[in-house]
Amino acid sequence: MDVRAEQPRILAIVPALNEERNVGRVVAQLRAHPRRIDVLVVDDGSTDATAEVARSQGARVISLPFNLGIGGAVQTGFKYAAQHGYDVAIQVDGDGQHDVNEIDKLLGPLLAGEADVVIGSRYVGHATYQAPVMRRIGMLIFALVNSLIIRQRVADNTSGFRAFNRRAIAFLARDYPADYPEPEAVVLLGRSGFRLTEVPVNMNQRLHGRSSIGSFQAVYFMIKVLLAVLVDVFRYSPKRGEVR
To answer: Is the dihedral of CA 119, 121, 123, 125 positive or negative?
Structure first.
């Protein structure tokens, strides 16, 4: 019996914009994981050597012709996963802040059939992560609003370290928010009957470069996403168990 053939097919989706100094290490770590994980880097219109570095480390690379933003890049990954029949997709940022050694924490509830989506959370369990003040305020607001809307507590709505099963992949390949999509995706999934759960993870510091979201952008981001979330309340029926 071919035991390997029974293992779930796993794809790591790595959105990356101008991460030539980080993405190579991320790809190498994913490819060295004890589980077989195929790696897809979605180069979101980078102007540096992100695509070349990722490819040199053995990743499959899709280079978008121009910058679509994080939502377009991640949805490209979901479309690829759906078209190629992957059982599991894992979203991992290209900046190296996610610890790939914690992937099995995400896969546990998913492979046990206990959840459709698993969020790597910085705010459950023994949380040590400290974001800048404005980000912390935004995260607390998202946690309150989203938890009320989907009637389930989600502590870390902005985490980009997540795992998805086949049904969630198919859903998000069709419909995924465009701008800063993580909080809105929680609402879309929760309102559409998907089972979400969180597991505690750590967050590494960036080795190179810096986040594109400063304090001012964090406020703009929070207002924009909250408006989008309110629109989603009317778009998606809260009928649990009726997965689209």
So the answer is: positive
Q: Compute the distance between CA of residue 11 and CA of residue 164 in angstroms, rounded to an integer.
A: 10
pLDDT tens for each residue of 149-174: 999 999 999 899 999 999 999 999 99
226 pLDDT band, cuts 50/70/90, is: confident
Taking residue 27's Cβ as centre, other Cβ atoms within 10 Å add up to 28
- Residue 206: pLDDT band (50, 70, 90) is low
Q: Looking at beta carbons, which pairs linking 206-210 to residues 24 or more positions away fall under 8 Å?
A: 206/22, 206/95, 206/96, 206/97, 207/21, 207/22, 207/25, 207/96, 208/21, 208/22, 209/18, 209/19, 209/21, 209/22, 209/95
- Across the range 105-124, mean pLDDT stands at 95
Q: What is the pLDDT of residue 218?
A: 67
Ordered DSSP codes for 149-163: HHTS--S-TT---EE
